């Protein structure tokens, strides 16, 4: 799980071009949206595409995303349980 | 009809032109030359900056500084010219379509790949809801924006307008164009470049300002009649060849430089002239850098003699004529006068 969390942090930094942020800056339980990393709705779309492309997870219910993208820990747990890649 | 004045001129280019104090021009070489980028964090919030491609960053930073110098918070219009638009994100987006077999398309590059992204991002950063237009007409893109601005000011539809030209190199298409140019012996003989030059134009005169007297463009002119067109343009503004103190020209070393040679032949032999693309490289809105160079000539207390072929003999330059064309098409004349 720790490996997956690190991989997710690397992907988020790369895909969302978070130039000034390193893996160590993102706590596993930090909020990704709002007060934490400050991601927005366009970032959410990028993350949904990442889930589909890299882990074979298709999110069909937008409400689901709100819960899944809560933090790295929650996201990693969801991927671990649902991944097909 | 109101007049049109240039209140500020800012350029990000292959030169150290963005620096506030006087800058020295240096020669450039190679197949393509990137712009010298300032610290964008001084002008753009980190949240906005992370999504911006090179052209958007250059455009927003140059526009922001142009407004600062002109002491203007909100322009009455934002007019942008770009030949290739946001080619960097267009390439990224198209490559992603191919790589992912038309699946998994991400939004950011697509959203920012449109030609009007620069004008839109400037407006967003200023929260400016006034007239905002982007002109995409090859090598006349910047001039089209300039003409729109001049018309608005003349007709009293606006008092202060932000106008600029921006193009970025991108990563791939430019290399294909370079290969095609290099295949012929009379192709473009300068590096391809990139840059953003923005200006605040105003109908209000300032002391020691610059007046934009006139702008004209033509799709096509023959090499034999270029001087006639210039003469008509000068006559329209009650000037003759002898009234022009210097020429600012868009030579790029290709076979179509004969247009510039034919034009110079009709001016006095000693007419000082500048070929600005040797410092900026060639790109569709390089003429905006040309206008920046002309503005700098007026702004400097002393004429930068070493910029010119044929050193200026007069102690003061009052009237400059800018001429640019691309591949024998998209001809533009810009006439400037020191107030």
Description:
The complex is a heterodimer of chains A (85) and B (339). Chain A contains 4 helices and no strands. By secondary structure, chain A is an all-alpha fold. Chain A starts with a helix and ends with a helix. The relative contact order of chain A is 0.19. In chain A, α1 crosses α4 (72-82). In chain A, 55% of the residues lie in helices and 0% in strands. By secondary structure, chain B is α/β, with parallel strands linked by helices. Chain B folds into 2 domains: 5-202, Peroxisomal Thiolase, Chain A, domain 1 (3-Layer(aba) Sandwich), CATH 3.40.47; 210-338, Thiolase/Chalcone synthase (Peroxisomal Thiolase, Chain A, domain 1). Helix content of chain B is 32%, strand content 21%. Chain B contains 11 helices and 10 strands. In chain B, strands 3-2-4-5-1-6-10-9-7-8 form a 10-stranded mixed β-sheet, with helices on both faces. In chain B, β7 (246-249), α9 and β8 form a beta-alpha-beta unit. The longest helix of chain B has 16 residues, at 54-69. Chain B starts with a strand and ends with a strand. The model of chain B has no long low-confidence stretch (mean pLDDT 94). The chains are: A mainly alpha (85), B alpha/beta (339). Chains A and B meet through α2 of A and α1 and α4 of B.
């Amino acid at each position: 799980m720790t490996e997956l969390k690190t991989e997710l942090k690397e992907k988020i930094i790369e895909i969302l071009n978070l130039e000034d942020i390193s893996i160590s800056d993102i706590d596993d339980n930090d909020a990704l949206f709002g007060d934490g990393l400050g991601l927005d709705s366009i970032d959410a779309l990028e993350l949904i595409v990442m889930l589909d492309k890299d882990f074979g997870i298709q999110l069909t219910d937008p409400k689901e995303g709100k819960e899944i993208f809560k933090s790295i820990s929650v996201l990693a747990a969801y991927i671990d349980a649902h991944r097909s890649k | 009809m109101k007049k049109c004045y240039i209140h500020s001129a800012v350029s990000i280019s292959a030169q150290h032109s963005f620096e506030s104090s006087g800058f020295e021009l240096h020669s450039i070489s190679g197949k393509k030359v990137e712009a010298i980028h300032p610290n964008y964090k001084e002008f753009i919030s980190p949240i906005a900056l992370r999504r911006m491609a090179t052209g958007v960053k250059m455009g927003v930073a140059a526009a922001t500084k142009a407004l600062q110098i002109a002491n203007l918070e909100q322009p009455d219009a934002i007019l942008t010219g770009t030949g290739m638009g946001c080619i960097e994100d267009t390439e990224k987006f198209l490559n992603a379509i191919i790589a992912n077999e038309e699946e998994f398309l991400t939004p950011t590059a697509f959203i920012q790949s449109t030609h009007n992204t620069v004008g839109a991002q400037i407006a967003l950063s200023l929260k400016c809801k006034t007239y905002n237009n982007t002109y995409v007409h090859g090598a006349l893109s910047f001039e089209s924006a300039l003409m729109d601005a001049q018309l608005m000011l003349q007709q009293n539809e606006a008092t202060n307008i932000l106008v600029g030209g921006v193009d970025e190199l991108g990563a791939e298409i430019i290399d294909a164009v370079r290969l095609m140019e290099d295949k012929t012996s009379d192709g473009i003989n300068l590096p391809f470049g990139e840059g953003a030059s923005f200006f605040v134009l105003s109908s209000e005169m300032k002391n020691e300002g610059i007046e934009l007297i006139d702008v004209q463009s033509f799709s096509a002119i023959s090499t034999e009649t270029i001087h006639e067109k210039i003469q008509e343009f000068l006559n329209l503004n009650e000037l003759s060849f002898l009234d022009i103190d210097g020429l600012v020209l868009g030579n790029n070393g290709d076979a179509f430089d004969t247009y510039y040679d034919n034009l110079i032949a009709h001016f006095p032999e000693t007419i000082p002239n500048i070929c600005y693309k040797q410092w900026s490289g060639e790109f569709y809105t390089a003429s905006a850098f040309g206008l920046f160079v002309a503005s700098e000539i007026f702004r400097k207390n002393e004429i930068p003699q070493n910029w010119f072929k044929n050193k200026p003999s007069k102690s003061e330059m009052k009237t400059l004529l800018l001429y640019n064309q691309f591949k024998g098409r998209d001809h533009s004349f810009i006439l400037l006068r020191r107030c």
